Model the fold of this input.
Amino acid sequence: IVTSLCNLGGKQYTQQTTKCTSLRKRWRQNVPNGGAIPSSTQLRCEYLPKVAECHKQEIMELVNLSVVTDESTDAQDQYVLHILFVLQGLNDEDASDSKLKAVLADIMYLQAVNYNTISQAIVKCLNNVGVDFNNISAFISDSATYMSKAYNQVLQGLLSNSVHLTCNAHIVALLELKCQLDNSEILQIQLNLIARHGKELVDLIKWFENREVHVHQAYNKVVNLINTYKALTGEQHSGDTGIQSQCIKTFTEIADKLTNYYDPNHSERTSHFTQPAHQFLKAVRMFDPLQVCMLNLDALLLDSMLGFNRSCKTELEGYRFYAKECSSDLSLTAFWRSAEPRFPNIANLANRYLSVVPNSMDAERSV
Done:
């Protein structure tokens, strides 16, 4: 409502000029003079600060939220840091609503971009809003070295209940099919190869970018993609030996990079191209009642999930039995609402971690 009114400028708008019943109701309740707003100046100076303060108070009272951040440059090539909060989506009144809500918390200009300036800006933002550091579930960023260093050396100690995720959509985009063949005469063959087998990558990027509650499916999606490209290494793609060899090499490299990214222990090579939350992405699947019965929980290193204590372990077997009886049509939101009285400790963790987003796209689009 506020955004729409700001865009209207300084014109006279009364409650009689709109057909929106809900808008008229809000104006009658919250705006003096029968809902008349004489100018945009009055809207910005008098009404918006009150709305902003109420919104700030709501954020401060949230039990769980995630911090999403991204650095970019403006039209004058100044460094800009966008900081967003992804609000808990499982506590809405509508149990069928599984959408996550992202709000822009702050935009900060930086003199330089390094782990020091990034961490200081984020801490300053959190302090300004008044968010309890213990209520932050995740810190989501791109894979830049300074972002990882900011979390590992500064933020991790302050955000003790959080996990660091690097944007999964970024990683899949970096693996876009590129058959680097030197001979320009076979460029069309390269393009045909991308057209035939690049759809899986594009689909996964789009899936990662939406705001549905689906972090519990992220690991499985990537494993399916790895298996798809591993299978392609055994197929015939061209009658030309050189092209066939290059195709196999391309598919093998894609599968290996994804495998190393989501399972860094798989390879003896040390690489910065890893997902710091790879164990979390495996373990968070336990909060999906359709998956928990098929998972080897001993192999998931549940102790590595912050907050999974002895009380949670006590409830675990009961939860697995209860999950077997649940309807497959039941949404995650509805399931955990019904299960919370029986398994309060696991439900608390589910509400915390299922709201984590596996990408930083909202921060990049906040310009």
The beta strands are 65-73, 79-87, 101-110, 136-141, 163-166.
